[in-house]
Structures are given as structure tokens and as C-alpha cells.
Design a protein that fits this description.
Layout (H helix, E strand, L loop, with lengths): L1 H28 L9 H32 L6 H23 L4 H19 L42
Length: 164
């Protein structure tokens, strides 16, 4: 599942960067302006935004790839990146639902959001507490399957202090 998410994020990184680059070229060639903004500024900002978001999705894809290769939960910055990409896909899904007539974009965003959340939940403490304290030797310790008839020692209170 982490492999699938890594591939999807790699493809999405390329697609977002290419789409914004294309829109920047279109804005430049048609000399488009929005509310009096310089057309060159619009073109450059579209291209820069595409590169930034493409690199962001690429970094998130690398984190998912590392999770898949190591078969271990992401930690630290990697976990934060995956949580943030889940939030981004949730917001993009909401915008796609509200503004796009075709609901395929919404479904894609929700599927990617589900993959990220599934990755975060699946690898969350998969191996259990590895650095836990050793099992107690008292009556609360788990039963030993090799010695089922052995009774634990009774709990006795400590001796009372003597008056001296």
C-alpha cells in the first residue's frame, strides 16, 4: 500500500508541476492579466508555484517510498509531511467538490487522502512497544504457557515498623 501511495504521489508531483508550468506559459503567451497584475508576474508565479508544489509532493512521495522500503512507520518530519499532504488532499477534495463539475477530481483527492491516512494508521505501532519495560515477576505477570500449574506467590504486606 505504501508503494501505491509513493507511485501516486510521484505521478501527482509531475502532473501538478507540468500543469502549472503549462498555465504559466499560456498566461505569458496570451498576455493575460487578473485585476491589473503584471502578466509576467502571473506567469512566473504560476511556474514557481508549480515547481514548489511539485517538489512538495515529490518529497512526500519519497517519504512514502522510504516507508515502503523500510517497512517501518514514518517518524518526525516524514510523519508531519504525510499528515500535511493528507490535509492538502482533503482541502483540494473540498475545492474540487465545490468548484468542478466533474467529480472525478474529487474522487481522486479522496482516494489519495484515504491512502495517506491508511498508511499512517497501518504502520502506527505495527510492531508494538519494542522498548517497553520487562514483564513484572509479581501476580500481574502474564501466564507462562510452559508452566500453567505454577501459582504466583501471594502478596504479603510489608512488616509493620517496630516502636523503637
Amino acid at each position: 500500500m505504501a508503494w501505491i501511495l509513493a507511485v501516486v504521489l510521484f505521478v501527482e508531483a509531475f502532473a501538478v508541476a507540468a500543469l502549472n508550468w503549462f498555465l504559466g506559459i499560456v498566461a505569458d503567451r496570451q498576455n493575460m492579466s487578473l485585476a491589473g497584475i503584471d502578466p509576467d508576474a502571473m506567469s512566473v508565479s504560476s511556474k514557481a508555484g508549480g515547481v514548489v508544489f511539485g517538489l512538495y509532493f515529490l518529497l512526500c512521495a519519497v517519504v512514502a517510498l522510504l516507508v515502503a522500503v523500510r517497512d517501518r512507520a514514518p517518524a518526525g518530519l516524514g510523519r508531519i509531511l504525510l499528515i500535511s499532504v493528507a490535509v492538502v488532499h482533503g482541502l483540494l477534495g473540498a475545492f474540487a467538490w465545490a468548484m468542478v463539475e466533474d467529480k472525478a477530481a474529487f474522487v481522486f483527492m479522496v482516494v489519495v487522502l484515504g491512502l495517506v491516512v491508511l498508511l499512517l494508521m497501518t504502520y502506527d505501532r505495527l510492531e508494538g512497544p519494542s522498548d517497553a519495560a520487562p514483564a513484572p515477576d509479581g501476580p500481574d505477570r502474564p501466564e507462562d504457557p510452559e508452566q500453567p500449574d505454577k501459582d504466583p506467590a501471594p502478596i504479603a504486606p510489608p512488616p509493620a515498623p517496630s516502636p523503637s
